[in-house]
Amino acid sequence: MKFRTAAVQYKLSDIETFKQFEAQVTHYVRNASEYGVQFLLFPEFLTTQLLSIGDENGKALGIDKLPSFTEQYLQLFVSLAKEYNMYIVGGTHVVDVGNGKRRNAAHLFHPNGQIDVQHKIHLTPTEVTEWDMTPGDGVEVFQTVFGKVAMLTCYDIEFPEIVRIARAKGADVIFCPSCTDDRHGFYRVRYCCHARTIENQIYVVATGTVGSLRKVDFMRANFGQAAIIAPNDIPFPPGGIIAEGVVNDDMLVVGDLDISLLEDVRQNGSVMTWRDRRTDLYTDWVEHE
Questions:
Q1: What is the pLDDT of residues 68-109, one digit of tens each?
Q2: Residue 76: per-residue pLDDT
Q3: Which terminal residue of the chain, N or C, has fewer Cβ atoms less than 10 Å from its own Cβ?
Q4: Residue of 56, 59, 83, 120 marked active site
Q5: How many other C-beta atoms are found inside a 10 Å radius of the C-beta of residue 205?
Q6: Is 44 considered catalytic here?
Q7: What confidence tens digit (pLDDT) does each residue in 177-229 have?
Q8: Which numeric CATH code is attached to 2-288?
Q9: Distance CA 229, CA 202 (A)
Q10: Residue 11 falls in the annotated catalytic set
């Protein structure tokens, strides 16, 4: 099975209305549709752009106000997924989960209107101490017409065990929305994406925010580059990069994923890292499921 995917290097800039956010998001979806994209990824924290709308005094809204945009966010992406017959990972959005708790949640919008959600499992110090968020508590895998996929956000991809769980549950593609403010954070995420493709013989589609929100604390600097990454084996590019963007540019990165090639390398690859894991020496998640 083959399908075309794309990742948005979403350029953050201060806005004044939700309509401006809607117009920017719609632009990327429309652009992707012109390239025949069937599965589109937006980055982590793209909706922090809404905080720059500000209050009556022009001061940026606090993170506690972001969940107030949830209904508009959901309506926008549901309508776009339907209109363009496209699966869309709408980046992440901060949601209320009750008892005064907030989570950073990745959303998968299906063309039929279905919405799947994966809460970020591992939180950065800023998310905990500055934004008072709570972590998710499980890894989900989602069925699509193109097979099973998972959404693991930014820091999550740096934990091999979590991706093992997703793969053991049948995921062939990990979508990784990210948001990093400097080269150090960007390369941590990027190198880990490459490692996860090799360890699990899967694809990883990753992207991050670019641009700057001058009004919004902790979003004033962004360093991002989208990439569509494959295992390093003969059917794929030697460097494992199917496609990648220009660092920090506002752009769309497009590439084709062939799931049958993953099956080939799992059975007859130069190495077979998924098959050859030594569960007699270290615990395998499948044994406990």
A1: 999 999 999 999 999 999 999 999 999 999 888 999 999 999
A2: 98
A3: C
A4: 120
A5: 27
A6: yes
A7: 999 999 999 999 999 999 999 999 999 999 999 999 999 999 999 999 999 99
A8: 3.60.110.10
A9: 9
A10: no
For residue 103 the two structure tokens come to 């989570």
Helices 183-200 and 160-168, interaxial angle, to 10°?
Answer: 40
The span from the CA of 64 to the CA of 228, in Å, is 33
Active site residue 127: no
Pairing of strands 147-151, 142-144: antiparallel
Question: What pLDDT, on the 0 to 100 scale, is given for residue 47?
Answer: 98
The neighbouring-strand residues paired with 258 are 2
- Catalytic residue (one of 11, 44, 193, 244): 44
* pLDDT score of 287: 46
* DSSP output for the chain: -EEEEEEEE-EE---SSHHHHHHHHHHHHHHHHHTT-SEEEPPTTGGGGGGGG--TTSPPPPGGGGGGGHHHHHHHHHHHHHHTT-EEEEEEEEEEEETTEEEEEEEEE-TTS-EEEEE-SS--HIIIIIT-B--------EEETTEEEEE--GGGGG-HHHHHHHHHTT-SEEEEEE--SSHHHHHHHHHHHHHHHHHHT-EEEEEE-EE--SSSTT-S------EEE--SSTTS-TTSEEEE--TT--EEEEEEEEHHHHHHHHHHSS--TTTT--TTTS--GGGG-
Domain ranges for the chain, please list them: 2-288
Q: Parallel, antiparallel, or unpaired: how do β-strands 251-258 and 241-244 relate?
A: unpaired
The whole-number pLDDT of residue 280 equals 87
Residue 100 is predicted with a pLDDT of 84
Catalytic residue among 11, 127, 154, 179: 154
